[in-house]
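Section 4.2 – Deliverable D4.2 (structural model, holo form)

The reporting period included a commitment to supply a predicted holo structure for the target in complex with zinc ion. Inputs used:
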Amino acid sequence: MSANSQLEPDLVVNNARLVATMDQGLGEVENGWVSIRDGLVAAVGTGQAPAAARTLSAEGGLVTPGLINAHHHLFQNLTRAYPPMTNAPLFGWLETLYPLWGAALDEEAVHVSAWVGLAELALSGCTTSSDHLYLHPRGRGDLITAEIEAATDIGMRFHPTHGSMSLSKKDGGLPPDSVVRNEDEILAESERLVGLHHNRDFGAMTRLALAPCSPFTVSPQLMTATAELAERLDVRLHTHLAENAEDDEYSMATFGKRCVDFFEDVGWMTDRSWVAHCVRPNPEEIARLGKAGVGVAHCPSSNLILSSGIAPVVDLRAAGSPVGLGVDGSSSADSASVWQEARLAMLLGKLCNGADAMSARAALEMATIGGAACLGREGELGVLRPGAVADLAVWKMDGPAFAGVGPDMVEGLLRCGPVGAHHTIVNGTAVVEAGQIVSPRLDEMLKSHNVISRRFQPV
Ligand SMILES: [Zn+2]
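Output (structure tokens):
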């Protein structure tokens, strides 16, 4: 019990059949409750819960730390299930969509798509999301600030990354000229945005990272300069790495080396980095990534839809890499449920490495403490213990889909379903209550999203 627990909590979540704290010391608490004060967990206990200014019932269900989404492109929910590209692998899919995104992306589109995308994530029990926003067409305003305002409005903890693309088709890259930026401009804008938005305090709601999009959209010089800038500003680094066979082939043809060797040569083989996908590393590369502590955001739905492959996350975890989960962009996944990615990660881990290689607990670990480690916030997010942030998901686990689940509610959560969160609490405040978004703005935002998405996908 912390000293804080002597004061009346702001909120108590009570009546849980089980609280899975993901904390090694506290473990799983039966007949549990969690008390919250000043945005932090004050105490976790069993039996009679303390009195509080407000209570929320877990209704005999399971309480877990809020899930963490370690990779996303929120704006892509404006081009979901885009008809010409529903059956293409990565490069063709990107080349078709770049011009559509480049033509219509602006502050309003980013704000509304981020708001709606974060609402969707909150409904899946997610409390913290990253976003990789790599398209910044000239003259469309400050898109990172527009998405941060959306996260602040809905109440989600947010880790946007300033994505960049500088290598257009005429220079040997993949994107068209209209969506790339000059490299000096990218670095200056990165520094400006970190100064404006990056909060280093414990419990911060907004932190920024730097994120050149991929080796096939920026120059090696920008990768190196970004790593140096991140070191100087003390912020994290994010990019796509070794996503599929085309990615490998591009790296061999352009740089004469494999993706992981390129990544190391440009100064990114460090525990400051976390990467999306990492489907293609060989055993020797897995050992190097693990030894360096490079984080990996495993995005199983996207990897399956784009037929990229299955990331070797059991081996990456064993080698020492923190592995989190990512829903990836909503034009390639196209659903954004961290619960669903956790279930898929469990299923694919069993398929690739054996039935005992990926339990529901291991998948839940990736969705919570693994994601926290990717974002550089181990011990602060993704765990329920006194002093950690008060980010919780409450899973009611009733009805036909969960009938018959016995004492092992953690296995039940990921083996049964589908399910959305009953309550999602961020920083001690409910963003989802009784399965519904709390903000009164949902309908208004969905209407705007509908209008804006037609600008991207004219019919
Ligand atoms: Zn991605």
